[in-house]
## 1
Amino acid sequence: MRYLPKSPADREAMLKAIGVRSIDDLFSPIPAEYRLNRDLKVPRQMAESEIVGWFRERSRENGDGYSTFLGAGAYYHYRPVIIDSLISRGEFLTAYTPYQAEISQGTLQSIFEFQTMICELTGMVVANASMYDGSTAAAEAVMMAVRLTGRRSVVIARSVHPEYREVLATYAWHQGMPLATAAFAENGRLNLKELEKAITPDTACVLIQSPNFFGTIEDVAAIAEIAHKGGAMLVVSIAEAVSLGIVEPPRQADVIAMEAQSFGVPLGFGGPYCGVIATREQYVRQMPGRLVGQTTDKHGKRGFVLTLATREQHIRREKATSNICTNQALVALMANIFMTIYGKIGMRELAKQNLAKTAYAAEQLGKSAKLLLNGAPRFNEFVVQTTEDPYAINGRLLGHKIVGGLPLKKFYPELGNAALWCCTELTTRSVIDTAAGLVAESERSLRSRKEADITEEVAR
Amino acid sequence: MKHITRKATRHVNQNEGLIFEKSSAGKTAWRLPPLDVPEVDSAKLLGTAERKDLGSMPEVSEIEIIRHFTRLSTWNYAIDLGMYPLGSCTMKYNPRVNEVVSRLEGLANGHPYQPEKISQGALRIIKTLSDCLTEITGMEAITLQPAAGAHGELTGLLMVRAYHQSIGDPRKKVLIPDSAHGTNPATAAMVGYSVENLKSNARGMVDTAALTAQMNEDVAALMLTNPNTLGVFEQEIHKIAGILHAKGGLLYMDGANMNALVGKVRPGDFGVDVMHLNLHKTFSTPHGGGGPGCGPVAVKQILEPFLPKPVVITKPDGTLGFEYNRPMSVGRVRAFYGNFGMFVRALAYTLANGPDGLRQTTEDAVLNANYIRKGLEGVYDLPYSTPTMHEVVFSDKLQAKKGVKTGDIAKRLIDYGFHPYTVSFPLIVHGALMIEPTESESKEELDLFIEAMRSIAAEVEEDPQTVLDAPHSTRVSRLDEVGAARKPVLRWKPAV
């Protein structure tokens, strides 16, 4: 086996040094009746060239070469090449968690920079070194609010990503946390009257997403006021991090639970991504996940360490703020490099291109089909309602190597033939025009068929 | 240094400040293509939601970013540089073909919501890895959705909870041995169970008499790591499973140490009902300074209905798809399908090994741990003489007489060119040195490690202060952790 650095003679010498006759002697603690006396039924050992060949085939079967209008929590942005050059360095890629600070300063300093930039972008005072993803970060942020307020129930906007809501429901299930949902209004924003009604003296927090699942930017200030008036905290989930370049961050939030996938992390069929929790200073000791802090060594030199570990499972065991151990450090490093590349000016320009592409696409698609949940400011997503089932339209788009917007029936049956479309800086005008053309064709043919039916009926 | 350090030599490395300290207005590392659609007025589109300023985000050039992160990287120790004997956590070699295949266009850019018709490649990878892991563990069904080992524990215990509820027998407690990882009790608490501690016997194993006494109809499960954190195989594992099953409890196995078992014995065969795997540890996915992980949960058939949704199924036409209609499911534990990129890497590793490679890997891991044990026995105190599997736990009892603790020996090991072992864990060994070499070490590297550890033991006798002041060769000396926690500085701020 090519990964194993031993010759048969090495193994013999080692067995001899240990004082056993054969390797099986070392496995004698395992009761004989359970020992596996056959080969595992897994594929035979393959050459590297065969492995690459096998995965190439899988890659070809997996949407290779398609343009996409899919977003919904996973965004296709350009990834500058130096991200992979840098994260492929073995000292980053193959290091473990930085428990030994003296030989982990590279990882620790980069996390410290990551925390700084997340704070800068979100308007919060502290940010952790990452969580698994946006969905689990939102669930952990809610549990943090439950601990902080001593209240048990949660109000969730229905415009939060449906899968984030499902994850929260799973986490809440055995913690006895009642969940209430607040509806969205016609303009796609949270219905504030509904929200006011949903908050009770037991509401620990309100969870919203902004830009929300439909791409609409919520009126965070108004929502915060209502939540705080009811004694509840406000948790804001951000699934599209690139929005922070041009959309005012939810500074009125108490906790922000973010998905940083948009910052240079490949779509990768859904993961690994990079969750982050950011919050106000007074809540840091209830925050889950790792934190890196600045300190000095005994000669007064600046250095960085994992800190406030007394919140964590390896110290506090069942009294920890969370069971999280491993986070998404390498993915956070991707995000870190991405934020560094675009920086103060580029982040804004990048976000602006997203805004422009989306405005253009919405206008083009809106010419023939109906834009739903329209009227409030949005970032890079919008909802299009068609006469024809969006699955059928998407079937035809696939023929042009285009993946159309996400049909919403599964998550929001009340919206009928609606689909969630997304544009980023990578969506080209020609793809938008092709897609808009096909949608217009569908609308025209269905409308004329309907008219034909009516004419036929009248004639009869 | 007086003593032998054949492994490492000091060399110059570059100083580097924080990226913010290099920033100055007008430097850029980006360029966008010209816009092919009309420009928009963001103020008009966004109104009061428009952001005006990005504060102290950096402005630097590309070469500065390359140098910045390359310099930082040289301050890290890594498996690519040498042995990383961080017991229970550790890593094996991370094969580079894994990185190459995970970056293939269709896999790296596949959107989780793209139609199943054009997702057959990803689905095939999920299916193939699921089948391999089910066979390797001897279990009957699996979910790959959990994002890390601890997340797998959460998922596994949720399923236990759902199972007991479904048969009208909800339970309150989870038993956890005193040698367990901290994530076990933290997870049980998150799932709403109360935690009851289970004492180990004199051989470092579960005390079956104590277990019998503590086991009752309130206990949902025992969370057991096997081999346990002492590197000891629980020889009475089947008896343990029997005691639990007799009273309706389930056996949860923390599979952190599965790398000691692959191809030699299967947890499903010795009575385990539910277990998680840590793909970074047993299946070579990179740990990248703390993640991403991936924590698949394998179960017996009785728990299959409770798997998180969706599950992958083969449809009547032979294609693969996601099944969401799972009324008994515990629900989702993560958006989308889990850390797919890690599935790709773990499968590439499995294919590179095949059945013979996987078995040889396990044998070498156990061989290496025993070789270290033999090489250090007598020099360091061995609190449990029970046979060693993949890791060996010593204590600092002998060195403590000179005032030198496990943490000091660990820091001194850095000067010898090694990453330290796991310090002060498991908790049942006072002053523990938990050493796990993995199969990735050659005899030569192991000999260097043994030599280093023996040399440190000699230093403790002759000149303990050198050890107490270690490390001497790193960029920074021991850092003030107390100060860091007392007055946390968690971000950089511009000078006012």
## 2
Amino acid sequence: MSRTSIEQRPIAGRFRRSRTPAAVEDRTSLIGHRWFTPYLLSGPSMIMVSVLLAFPVVYAVWGSLRDAEFLGGPEEFVGLQHYVDLFQDPDFLWTIARSLIFLSGSLVLGLVLSLLFAFALNKAAAYLRFLRGVTIVPYLVSGVATAVMFRLLFNTEFGQVNKTLEFFGIAGPSWFANKVFAMAATIIAQVWSDLPLGVLLLLGGLQTIDPSLLDAADVDGATGWQRARYVSIPLITPQLALATAWLSYSTLTSLGVVLALTGGGPVNATNTLPIELYETAFLDLAMNEALAIVVIILALNAVLTLIYVQMSRRFDIGNS
Amino acid sequence: MSSRIYNQWMAAPLARRSIRRLLVWIPLAMLLVWTVLPILMTLSISFKTRADVFAAPQLIPREPTLDAYRSVIDRQGFRGAFVNSVVVGLGTALLTLVVAVPAAYAFARFRFRGRHLLLLFTLIPRLIPGLGLMVPLYRLAAALGAIDKRSTLIVVFTGTVLPLAVWLLVGYFQQIPRDLEEAANVDGANLFERIRYIVLPLAVPAMITIGVLSFREAWNEFNLVLALTQTPGKRTLPYELWLMTDTTGFQDNPGQAAFAMLTLVPFVFLYLRIERYVVGGITSGAVK
């Protein structure tokens, strides 16, 4: 019974029409499509990417070269005027400097913690699944919610950080009233939010390392530190470069965390490029100038990425 | 680890072994504290009264209360923003799949003129940050009269996740053996039927990953909501939460904490079932 019932239900029965498979002889072409089918299938995606992602970049460059005499007035070509104005404005140069401080602080802390946690997770064996699950939690928390959490954590009166410092007999600072500490708190919050991807990328790299290489180093009498420094880290250079590029991309364009944590304060101490962009565009309503800031951020991003690629080439094991 | 090294390990003095063990467990403990403490403290404060936040700063609330949650839920704008977030999140996940699946199928299965160039053109915009889109898309939406609309948010968020979605799906579709489809082809299945009955059932894990990632993106997005909505009642949760923190004077700490916890609600339900998919998705998607 079983046999016949299977034969009576051929796979083809699931399909309504049974066409003559004329094109089947040609293995590269599956029937049921014309030359334009792939264009039709990928068309909607192409259009959305063009309009929503590619067009804005072109528009930003174009719009940054124009200006209106008054708000909402007709726009005219003004050349590089906005860029000249921005780079002659000491406040804007300070904003770039603060962004770079924020960036380097986040990169150092982010990479050190990513490496430390990735190496530890790589040895966690039985608990790996659980710990990796914990690691990705910040990935699910929005930037604004992250900021709310760190405002509470760093609160001068009841925050857990200052309570802990107090326990060790240290008087905790008032984090958001002091320029340096406000920047430090912002860096920590930003790194918290970005770390899951850094850790997972590096862990993925570590897990692909051939254990025999580490065994060989062990036989040669390498210490744990030496194995990490001269075997593991060079082997995960591609992942390190990717993690660096990603951390830096995310930090440089972070608006939600900074805006909700410090709002750029105290006295502009955490006023980074994204905050400047937001204020120029949506508070001062100087849209064309804001577009110039957009272009500067995009350019900075591109330059940094190129630098990381160059550096990763130099540190790659093949060249060392 | 080879048995030789294991023997060496066992032969090592006890002290050295425990030091090695500590070298792994100290960072792991740090990882736990680092990740969990901010959330734990927020959770704790969300169950306190405003006065107890100061009077009883310990982690376990003295008299746990749901007052903060009640006040947030009754807060003007919260329910509307929650509904907006749910609609926009689910809409984005759905639209992303509807647009990305055919595109990825085309790139994975067909050899057509300009295929590589078009694929690159789809993937490279992944590097454009949402921050850079704020002003141009605001002007575009304003010109089209599309400000303050959920559909605008859905379409824009879909655009920002499409490169990742197409990238993940192309890789996944390529792993599905071509023979399966050729067999169906012999049986007369047309393109739509092959996708519907062969490719999609096999690609369920990838589609769950993409659904979750695009939902998360839409649920947590702040920059573009800031740019594309202006009226109360049209915003999503992160914007409302920011407005709550952006007041001068006395801060409603338990309220903010409760709000932050409420923004995590969908992930609490999804999390345990999807952790595997998400980990795979974010690492292979690499950026963002």
